[in-house]
TrEMBL record:
Belongs to the PC-esterase family. TBL subfamily. Residues 176-458 form the Trichome birefringence-like C-terminal domain. It is a single-pass membrane protein. GO terms for cellular component: Golgi apparatus; membrane. Keywords: Membrane, Signal-anchor, Transmembrane, Transmembrane helix. It comes from Tetracentron sinense. The keyword Membrane applies. Residues 121-174 form the Trichome birefringence-like N-terminal domain. It comes from the Eukaryota. This is Trichome birefringence-like N-terminal domain-containing protein. One of its GO terms (molecular function) is O-acetyltransferase activity.
Amino acid sequence: MTYRRQISISSPMMQRWSKKKNHFPLLAFLFSVFIVASILYNERNIQQIHENNEQQQASITQESVLTSVSPTISGKEKKRRAIEGIDRFTTCESTRKYSGRKIERVDRTPDSEQRRGGLEGCDISSGKWVFDNASYPLYNESDCPYMSDQLACRKHGRTNLGYQNWRWQPHNCNLKRWNVTKMWEKLRGKRLMFVGDSLNRGQWISMVCLLQSVIPADKRSMSPNAPLTIFRAEEYNATVEFYWAPLLVESNSDDPVNHRLEDRIILPDSVLKHASQWESADILVFNTYLWWRQGPVKLLWSSEEHGVCEELDGLGAMELAMEAWADWVASKVNPLEKRVLFVTMSPTHLWSREWEPGSEGNCYNETTPIDMEGYWGTGSDLPTMQMVEKVVGKLSSKVSVLNITQLSEYRKDGHPSIYRKFWETLSPQQLSNPASFSDCIHWCLPGVPDVWNELLFHFL
Ligand SMILES: *[C@@H]1O[C@H](CO)[C@@H](O)[C@H](O)[C@H]1NC(C)=O
Ligand SMILES: *[C@@H]1O[C@H](CO)[C@@H](O)[C@H](O)[C@H]1NC(C)=O
Ligand SMILES: *[C@@H]1O[C@H](CO)[C@@H](O)[C@H](O)[C@H]1NC(C)=O
Ligand SMILES: *[C@@H]1O[C@H](CO)[C@@H](O)[C@H](O)[C@H]1NC(C)=O
Ligand SMILES: *[C@@H]1O[C@H](CO)[C@@H](O)[C@H](O)[C@H]1NC(C)=O
Ligand SMILES: *[C@@H]1O[C@H](CO)[C@@H](O)[C@H](O)[C@H]1NC(C)=O
């Protein structure tokens, strides 16, 4: 059976995009997508994922990719049996097309009780950004000792600081006002854990920065950077943790520092090793998305003993991983004891022509949000959203969705662009064209992720 990626050709968004594409057939931008290895103090290893039009095109006609890509196996690296675990040196002995194999499902009957949180009938993800420099930012960049150099835009030279001053205003109701004392009361005696990729790590740093100011310096601590990084507040006996699992299931990208981006291999039916890290947390905030957007993924089933991988497009592989995760949630989460939230796609702003037709840049130099209601760019993949909705919908009483996609779509001004630390040396050629190395994926702090955390606060 051949796996077909579900792209609805009739979707207006896809049509709009395909049309635009034809206007730029020779577009030769090579955008660097930075997904960064480690945070806090000793970040060194930065890896780049190159995304370009060709690649996007390729993932759209992924069937041809599936049949034309041949695996490259490094002769030096000996494969390991899946059963022994996976690391960044794991390779596939050989690769074949995806067989259509699925995860065996735990029975999940859809629940009528939708856990939307907040006010009945109010969709807090529909609204607008309001300039509010009286209440925002909620903290100062330089006051947060746990700030990441990847996100500290002011420190790295950004002078237009308007991105810090926007409040999210839902159309039909108000968000609960952020109150740090109340948040700590909710967290007393609990473990709040963020699990996912560098976007989720940004949200975790935002949460730590939002929370840390009221805890005296000698009553708080941060563990060293590791797969699991832990912020502790003694007087509340509470922790705010981040666990690196960019693909949710086990993969060869699980080393938080030296993670591998090329030739990604996942164990699609294995979340248990990761789950042993997160299962005792009281509040879990998951995300996963961008790591699935970098072309095909190799699958190594845990029963496979000969290192034979199957290859599948990113969306299909993400669905398998989400199903494995959903099985864990369905079988292990008692909603009376544990809160589980899933954060939807964080949009990227790699092509300014999407919000300003005719322009050729990206998020670099953007200083104001997009004010077109319902704006949706190609950084947010609709088929992915539909898949997430389907998987999470079946867990509705156990998982709340933090639907940050639409509100973040408006915030083309919120990315670091060139105002962050870059770990590799930038060439004179790059420096002469700042857009070429701009980070239009992560978000400056204080900024957009603070609002994601206000949504989280609203939901708790
Ligand atoms: C807020 O913005 C207004 C208009 O841009 C400006 O006049 C005012 O000084 C600002 N207030 C603060 C506290 O920055
Ligand atoms: C940020 O710093 C400014 C000046 O240093 C101060 O006036 C303001 O109250 C601080 N804001 C917060 C949220 O701490
Ligand atoms: C925050 O919550 C605490 C306790 O719940 C309350 O006493 C305090 O007034 C609130 N602060 C603000 C600024 O609303
Ligand atoms: C602190 O919280 C943990 C759970 O995170 C709990 O097991 C422990 O009993 C708590 N300790 C105190 C002193 O409340
Ligand atoms: C950035 O914006 C400024 C002010 O709007 C403008 O003068 C400058 O040319 C822009 N730079 C680029 C590279 O677009
Ligand atoms: C998130 O909100 C958008 C509209 O803003 C909606 O299209 C999408 O289905 C929602 N996603 C989920 C998983 O609920």
